[in-house]
């Protein structure tokens, strides 16, 4: 598998065993993401909810993992518990949720086929319930001995492998997304925000911080939130994506010329990314349920689109609109 590069994003993973974590210090120390243990089987990790919020407040990309105990519950029950816990702590907005499959009595006696079935069923159930993709955490040895790599080659991989220049290939799997390269740090390895001797694991994402953010958006989808906006005193439909508001194209009274590809933002909506021509200039837009929405900020910068109320610019207020 790949050799880590100096410009790749760094991160940690933690659990209640880690103790207190200063996530602001971690972020200032050059780390970009933090992944917390959400559940040990079906049992909640008592530190997760607070740490999950603190991770986001510190500006770190956040994620969660569940320790797999397949002999104690079905994959569907485990996935349901995972989704409920993460949604209750703030929702899916960073790294894909991970299932942690490793050696122990919880998997003893299961065949590679049975365990792979369980992992894939967990990933499918998470996707069904939350609309987000899942990720597998495991070691190269466990992947080769206890799972079926051929069936998992398209699943995002968080690999653990220590004391090596790079993780070994696992059959057809020659790439990882995340690499846990150091586990259970001691006082000789300083990590900002982590007390000496506290258990913390170090990871790297196979790409830059910008590539990590892009990958998270690709896995989770960009959330399109339905809204209402006021334009010249009239209420019209709009969607918010991040900090951008998109106005229903037909309500602008402008002409459009569409080009683009299909893009899925939210599992409830099939959204088609498109481009529109506004007074000869191309602008980003998208289509939801057959209606075209154009970027609000882009419209405000078009000279011939005027709102007589405020110096030629649109003025709007936002009120909630029930989801479909």
UniProtKB/TrEMBL annotation:
Listed name of the protein: Glycoside hydrolase family 25 protein
Pfam families documented for this protein: Glyco_hydro_25 (PF01183)
Gene3D superfamilies named among the record's database cross-references: Glycosidases
InterPro entries referenced in this protein's UniProt entry, alphabetically: GH, Glyco_hydro_25
Keywords: Hydrolase
Taxonomic superkingdom: Bacteria
Molecular function, one GO term: hydrolase activity
Recorded family membership: Belongs to the glycosyl hydrolase 25 family.
């Amino acid at each position: 598998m790949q050799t880590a590069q100096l410009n790749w994003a760094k991160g940690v993973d933690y659990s209640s065993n880690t103790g207190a974590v200063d996530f602001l210090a971690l972020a200032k120390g050059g780390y970009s993401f933090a992944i917390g243990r959400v559940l040990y089987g079906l049992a909640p990790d008592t530190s997760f909810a607070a740490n999950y919020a603190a991770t986001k407040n510190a500006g770190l990309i956040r994620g969660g993992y569940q320790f797999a105990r397949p002999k104690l519950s079905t994959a569907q029950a485990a996935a349901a518990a995972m989704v409920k816990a993460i949604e209750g702590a703030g929702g899916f907005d960073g790294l894909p949720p991970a299932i942690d499959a490793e050696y122990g009595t919880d998997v003893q006696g299961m065949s590679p086929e049975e365990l792979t079935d369980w992992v894939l069923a967990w990933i499918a159930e998470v996707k069904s319930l939350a609309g987000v993709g899942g990720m597998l955490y495991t070691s190269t040895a466990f992947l080769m001995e206890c799972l079926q790599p051929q069936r998992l080659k398209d699943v995002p991989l968080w690999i653990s492998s220590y004391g090596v220049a790079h993780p070994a290939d696992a059959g057809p799997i020659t790439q990882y997304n995340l690499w846990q390269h150091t586990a259970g740090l001691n006082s000789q390895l300083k990590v900002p925000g982590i007390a000496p001797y506290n258990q913390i694991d170090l990871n790297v994402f196979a790409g830059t911080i910008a590539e990590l953010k892009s990958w998270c958006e690709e896995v989770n989808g960009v959330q399109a939130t339905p809204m209402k906006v006021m334009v010249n005193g009239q209420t019209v439909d709009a969607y918010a994506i991040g900090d951008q508001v998109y106005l229903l194209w037909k309500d602008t009274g402008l002409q459009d010329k569409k080009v683009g590809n299909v893009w899925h933002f939210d599992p409830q909506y099939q959204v088609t990314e498109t481009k529109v021509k506004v007074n000869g200039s191309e602008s980003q837009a998208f289509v939801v349920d057959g209606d075209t929405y154009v970027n609000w900020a882009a419209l405000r910068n078009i000279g011939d689109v005027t709102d007589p109320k405020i110096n030629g610019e649109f003025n709007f207020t936002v009120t909630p609109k029930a989801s479909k």
